[in-house]
Amino acid sequence: MINLFAYSISFLIGFLLIRLILGEKTKISFFLHCALALGLGLGISADLTFFLLLTCGQFSQIGLLAINILMLLLLAALNFFYVPKASRLQPVEKIKHEITFHITTAICWIIAAIIIGILSQQFPFGGWDAWGLYNMKAKFIIYGETHWTDLTRLHAHTQPSYPLLLPLINAWIFSVFQKNIIEVASMTGVIFSFSCGLLLYAGLSMLIKRPVAVIAALLLTTTPSYIFWSTTQYADVLLAYYLLASTILLILTLRTREYRIALLAGLFWGMMPFAKNEGLVLLFLFIVITSGFFLADKAYDRKKSLSLIKNLIIGAAITGLATIVFKIFLAPATREVLYNPLAYKLKYCNIQGFLTTTKFYAVTMMSPGWILTWSLIALITIANLKKWFLVKESRVLVLILAGFAISLLYVYLTTAHFDLTWRLECTASRILLYLLPSILFLSFYTLWIETKKD
Amino acid sequence: MPLLKYFRILVIALASLLIVTNFVSGFFGVMAQIVREQQRPPLEPGIQYADLKKSLSGIRIAGFLTDGDATAEGNDGQFMLAQYMLAPTILDLNNSDHHYSIINCSTPEKAMGILKIINAKPLQINMYGKIIAERNL
Fold it and tell me: Torsion-angle region of residue A387: left (phi > 0), alpha (psi -120 to 50) or beta?
């Protein structure tokens, strides 16, 4: 519980930064503001930790505390001077039986939080790769002194090319009271796991009816395999959160065409590559497909489109800077993606490899912990397929997801250093985990959003 | 339009049913977890290497020599366990050039064989049979 203070500092940083970016006129709901604040704040604290490590050369508790508190004070001052106190958040649409709704949902959220909290102790030290990759790297950051960059010289089994967002968040939280790093890693997993559900509700409730949004969010938060994989202290839950935030803010950007929302969306897009390597592909797809959409759609004024694209890229560049520095100056090349597949003998790049991959994903989705949620998504998708392409926001997101699926297929089919089945066993469930919140969001959004035809 | 309305109602009903099912299975999961915690307190990964940490204090890099499978797919996890526990010392898998090496073997005879090959003497042997070897440079 003592670590909550450090999470609170990050939350406030995120909250004030969002308030400053959105200013007086651009309004989002208070709930969405809070749900986004935690992720943005923790991401910024991790970025600050990274750059402090680079400048000071080693982990410094005082330095970290000072820089985070300084950032908090700076944002508070800027908010005080530039954002009018009277600026209000978007009011939520009233529903019938408001009090009953609040009591019921509060009870459901509390039960979900208790279940997540207790089940997170199935692996108190984290899943195999969690302690072996992420928690071990946090040890290098904290105890490595001036040799903390040795984490990029580690053996390939420990994935030295993996981005550092999760170990950096844990190192920052640890720095405040210097208590058990294992507890910190566990709490980060629980917080992101639960926040993903809250974010799904907050995002959906701005676009569709709140009771429906609550059902979608609770469905996510209580799915057994979601709880299992999101609390095993892997970085996948971080990507799940940032991908969902990116999806929500992309939809808001497309709907509102507000520069400020675009900048905020860019900030979240830029966080994805620092969470996991797949985030780089997602960032690329978000930028290319959204920009293409803005430029191709005649409904948009070209000048405004260019400004929106500029804001998206500026936002992504600000938070993506840490990834750029890490990838260019520190990380070794990843062995997982072949940049020149022709140089290898590819034994899986054939129809058999394709069938193995697709069958494996189908089987994983049909496993007991996933099957009911994915079946419901499949039902919504099949019955509502037309609308996925009719609604322009979902059209953009479908293209992004399709692009990502093709990239994944490329990575699997060009597997050269590993056994394909082993690779699928290691990755399929985790990929389903980080895609689930965004796909669930999209399913409910497309089904409930009203089009002209409706 | 009415079809869409009925479909939405169906989705809400199915999703609500799923949430209730998930809550019930979550309850049983929680009960099982509480029993598990009482029966068997969890051990930190790499505990087999914990007492070697002191001897490696301040050592930036050491070798990790094993007679087991060292491939990504088929390894027994000993290298990962050792690397986790002994961080921030870098372990160099199957490289005997370093002054210090951790030796993880299935039998003492095999460990002695490795010590002989790399011309090293054991500095510390723990109760799990893990050895810190120092090369005679």
Answer: alpha
Non-local CB neighbours of B38 within 8 Å, separated by 6+ positions: none
Identify the H or E element spanning A295. helix A278-296
Q: pLDDT tens digits, residue range A72-83?
A: 999 999 999 888
Please tell me the predicted confidence (pLDDT) of residue A227: 96
Taking 90 as the threshold, does the pLDDT of residue A404 lie above it?
A: yes
The structural domains of chain A, with segments of one domain joined by +, span: 4-83+101-332
Percent of chain A with pLDDT over 70: 97
Whether residue A143 and residue B88 make contact (CB cut-off 8 A), yes or no, is: yes
Separation of alpha carbons B85 and B103, rounded Å: 15
Q: What's the pLDDT band for B73 if we cut at 50, 70, 90?
A: confident
A73 touches chain B (CB under 8 A): no
> At A372, phi and psi to the nearest 5?
-70, -45
- The structure tokens listed for A312 are 């998206």
Helices vs. strands in chain B: H and E counts, helices first: 3, 5
Q: How far apart are the first and last CA of chain B?
A: 83
> Are A155 and B83 inside 8 Å of each other by CB?
yes
